[in-house]
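User: Okay, second chain of the day. Same drill as before: sequence in, structure tokens out.
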Amino acid sequence: MPTKYFEVLDQYDAEKHGQIKVPPNVLKCIKLLKKGDVFSPKEFAEQNKEFLNITSTQLKATLFTVSNTVRVAKDIGMIRVVDEKPIKYEDFCNLDSVQYFINQLRGSKMKNLKKDSIKENSTKRHYLRQIYHFNNWLHGKTFEFSITKQIDVDVFKKTKEKVTLDGLEHLLSLYQNSHNTDSEFIKVVKLYLMDQQHSGCSAKYMSVKHSAITSYFDKNDSPLKFKYSPYNNHVDYKEENENATITLDDVYKLITQGKANPLEKAVVICRFHRGLDSSTFADRFN
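Assistant: Same drill. Structure tokens below.
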């Protein structure tokens, strides 16, 4: 998940903010917040490591304290969430190339949804989210590209230039104006897919990311094809759960101790009833 940043609007004052009832370690953290600072919880913990008397092995426990500090500070109006995204999701969806992309994707097969809805659980929604994340990652990053410039009539010069990207549309425009330099753009996409932020993602999820990005270029009439195997660096949970089993006792606990609602209970029971004889079903569930 993306890192959240917070801006300190005011420093803690007992008279102004009242005597808050929190553990001493949380109060200690709150008093460290300085007006005007912008921080993430992890950065805050690391920057104040010495004052908080923590070692690297205790950092995880301290992050829990810092999370509580953030919650309390937000409640009393000391801090606010900083929107670090370069463009809002709604505005991103209205970009020309994104609209062109959206209109070529299949929506949900569910009935009674608004025709222009992009919020339903569909390929359209999933792909939109994935290219939005890619757009935000690209923004502000600098890469080297081969740029072809016209210097005279029928005379062109190809040079290498460093370009700071303004997002996905900027990358698409560069690609459409490039000549035989697919590898440079493929490298950008691969660097995103290999980014550390995706280290805990499943192979299936990464495969969707790859498909969404290549589909965006393809639907914008600028195919960017390359092979990508997410199984090299990501867990294949399908294979991991292939031999998983569940007993009748497990099912019983699932729908009783799991606090399933009536509909969920009915679905599970109907599903398992197909493989049971009537006497066993009645003995275990009645």
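The longest helix spans residues 59-75.

User: Thanks, on to the next one.
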